[in-house]
Amino acid sequence: MESAETPKSFLKPLTKIMKTETKKSKFLPTISEDKSTRSSTSNMSKLSTPAPKVHVKPMLRPRSKSASELQLIQQKPLTTRRIAALKLGQKRPALQEIDKGNKPKVPKVKIPDWDYKSRFQELQKEHTATLEENKLFKTQVSQLEEEIESLRNAKQYDPEKIEFLQKSEKNLQDSFMVVSNEKNSLIKEFANQKKEYQNLTDSYDNCQEKYNILLETEKNLKEKNRNLLDENSTLKAKLSNQESKFWLHTSFNTLEELTKECLQKISNTEKIPQEPALCNTLLENWCKDLENITLKLKRDLDKQDDPRRSLRNTIQDVTGNIRVFCRIRPPITSEENERQLCAMSFPNETSLEIRKARKSVNVLSGKLINLKQKFTFDKVFPPDVTQAEVFEELGQLVQSALDGYHVCVFAYGQPGSGKTYTMQGSSNDCGIIPRTIDLIFQKIDKLSTLDWNYSVTASFLELYNENIRDLLLPNSTHNYEVRYNEGHGITVTNLQIIPITSAEELKLLMEEAQKNRTVAATNSNEHSSRSHAITKIHLEGYNETSKVKYSGSIHLVDLAGSESARTTNAERLNETKNINTSLSALGNVMLALYNKHPHIPYRNSKLTFLLQSCLGGNSKTLMFVNVSPFEECFGESINSLRFASKIKEIKTVAKKNKTYAFQCYH
Length: 666
Known about the structure:
Layout: H1 2-25, H2 35-47, E1 79-81, E2 96-98, H3 116-155, H4 159-271, H5 276-319, E3 322-328, H6 333-336, E4 343-345, E5 351-355, E6 360-361, E7 368-369, E8 373-376, E9 379-381, H7 387-391, H8 395-402, E10 406-412, H9 419-423, H10 432-448, E11 452-464, E12 467-470, E13 482-485, E14 489-492, E15 498-500, H11 503-515, E16 519-520, E17 528-529, E18 532-543, E19 548-558, H12 573-595, H13 606-610, H14 612-615, E20 619-627, H15 634-648, E21 658-660, H16 661-665
Parallel strand pairs: 3-9, 3-20, 10-19, 10-20
Antiparallel strand pairs: 1-2, 4-5, 5-8, 6-7, 11-12, 11-15, 11-18, 13-14, 16-17, 18-19, 19-21
Helix pairs in contact: 1-3, 4-5, 8-10, 10-11
């Protein structure tokens, strides 16, 4: 504002002089008689006419200039004063310009009132000085106006710059609007997040309550499971006691009757004469009696056979028709030093706790994460368990197949987790399939003494990229299709079915089929199975005495490794996709069985279509989930264990495939 006040400071001396003239005019007398005086007075009034007013617009302070740049230099106003005369009548000296600041003030001599001439001359001099000052002020005002105009011109900016500034202002306004909108959206989002956080807190509290309820339920279920196991052991003990009592009672009665008859016959033989013909007749009669007694004993045994089978099936139902075993693969000596092992613990025979050996840290909170996870199965086999101990649990399932049930045993897990070793074993340590073959023929031999005749057939196939191959005819060009036949179940067209007469014959066929199986190297296993191998052993038993016929089967399945496509090389990517597709279909079937859906999607994959008779309804299923012990496989191991945990919860009811011989003839 300094620039705006500067012109007013220059007008102050002019205003002061005008006021001085006005005061002096009051002292001039009016003499009408003297014309000269009047004329001089009129001339004086003309001369004393005030200067025209100069309108100075206030200067606006430009934003781009500082106040120091606009400061104007003011000139010091000059003052006029008269030099007092020493004597009356002496001429007055001319007016002198005296600088107020340099010379001392001289007292002013008062002109007498009657000396009009002197007064007039003085006024003329003052008038002349005033005109000069007025002229000087006009010059200064014009200079100021020019400076003001130049400042106004300087204030006007370049149009391009103005346009640029306007655009910048508009952009800033738009940015401000965007930021305002973002601010409003962030405020709303914060409110939503706060609300969601509250909901999550409530959900967490609810989950905590449910978790406590589940813990209590788990505790109760464990107690019930313990009671069921006790009941199972009690039933087993009762079954063995009943069988032993039955055999003892039957044997005792038989021996007692035979003893009585023998004693009676001995007493009779002592009374009759010793004639050869008569002795032969008596011996023939005794033989017939013994045959009748034996037949009666067999019939009694057959009557007890159904309760025995029913009790055995009850035991299987208590333990579950779909059972899940977990086996941890032992690391090879060379791998222990090269690969990091997971931390595993086994609280009991049915539980497994697994976590990473290295501690994990949460990126956000920086706190340690407890990655320990606990799983419960029907049986857990630590790494030091032998093949024989694993197979002990399968003896009852083989007997169930001979009793007319469908049985399925399959191994599931990622590549390199020990599936093929569990199913096939090695030359020095046989796996599940060779031991199952031996047990089947051992039981058939025992049952043959009770008039049971069994016929055994076997087939070997693999499912590679959703295509079926006969492992006994690897170069065959036949088209293999899966069909469902009423009364015969699932069949495969053109598949070779071989009659088996001995365990050795079946083992040789199994070894040949294993050689023809598709294998390849993967990131996890150098000799990984890239196909699903299915060995089917069909059993038909016929009792000549009771005319009862049983039809059962055992499916021994070695599944291909479940592996993530991200960890698979490009060459095996297509194989991995097909393997994962079929395993996903298997998981969907198991999930549908778990949820008790009315429709089970067996036909979504050839694998589930082939195993339809073994997965639900009339079947008893045992699943081995094989787990790799290495930390690099931790994620895949957890996925396999979670999948197996869901399968463990599935409940099905199996029915026996029992017919009578006379029904087959009609």
